[in-house]
Amino acid sequence: MSALLNSDQQSTYAQRFTGFLHVHISEAWKRFLLAFAGLVLAFAAAVFSRVSRDSGDLWATVILASVALLLATIVGLTTVPYLARRVAVPRVRDAFDYDVTRIGVVYILTALVIGIAALNTGNNLLYIIVAVMLASILISGIASSMTLRAMKLDIHVPEHVFCSRAAMVRIVLQNQYRYFPCFSVVVAPAKLNKARKQWRLEETIFSFPGGRPAGKQWFHLPDRVLRRVAPTATLPPVFRESIYFPLVATSSEASADLAVRFERRGRFRQDSFTLSTGFPFAFLTKKRRVSLQREILV
User: Fold this and answer.
1) Nearest Cα residue to 125 out of 113, 137, 114, 135
2) How far apart are CA 217 and CA 209, in angstroms?
């Protein structure tokens, strides 16, 4: 196999393979095993909760049922979004993410308490209330996803920008829906991930014996060494502030001007932006990452 590939192809494949092993497999398996252990513990707590209920131990029933629901909620909030973001379908992997707000935390805890009461009392009205509360979370997620998927972002930057002078940048949001308006959309620069050292396969020369000077060694062979190298330096970002759009009407666009100021000369570049919304109930703040490169020479 190595004889059929040149050195550049071997280096590329080695970098991809080591990066895949270091990031995707280890993290995915870690999440999977933790989720599996959490679900097993939640199932065991639910079974013992039923046993405690049949035996008449009220406090043990409440504690075990609470532990089961809490473990299932933690697994759902930490593992399911992580796995969903790694699905190979392009529309599903369209950079959707979410953050749970304070209102959402209070709402989920309230639904958890009512769910525990429904399990212990067997009251059908409490089951209906829990079902409605969970359906509201589902509707909120669907509505926010539809809102962000309909948005098309464009950024207009000026051609001439001078140091220590304000320049106006126009942000344009277009609603691609013909019958549905979009509400409460925030455009913000994407957060930069912390740069980490990466593994790289570098070409070198193997010499034997290794302790002798270069002219007194017996032979030299081409070799490759896997090393961790520092990441390349990135350009500073163009945008640091966010813009709020309360309403984007159907089949139309909304625009806003943002003043930017640079305190030094040079090149500034922004590679991506985020569109976020809490519509309609603000239980979750859903975000969509948009790849849109803009560069300014100050």
Assistant:
1) 114
2) 6
Say which residues have a Cβ less than 8 Å from residue 216's Cβ, sequence separation at least 6: none
Return left, alpha or beta for 282; rule: phi > 0 is left, psi -120 to 50 is alpha, else beta.
left
Q: Are 221 and 250 in contact (CB under 8 A)?
A: no
pTM: 0.57
- Per-residue pLDDT tens over the stretch 64-115: 888 888 887 887 777 766 666 555 444 444 457 778 888 888 898 898 889 8
Q: Which residue has the tokens 């490759």?
A: 224
Rounded Cα distance, 298 and 234, in Å: 16
Task: Measure the CA–CA gap between 72 and 78, rounded to whole angstroms.
Answer: 10
Structure tokens at 12: 């590329």
Closest C-alpha to 277, from 102, 87, 142, 118: 142
Give me the torsion for CA of 5, 10, 16, 17, rounded to 10°: 90
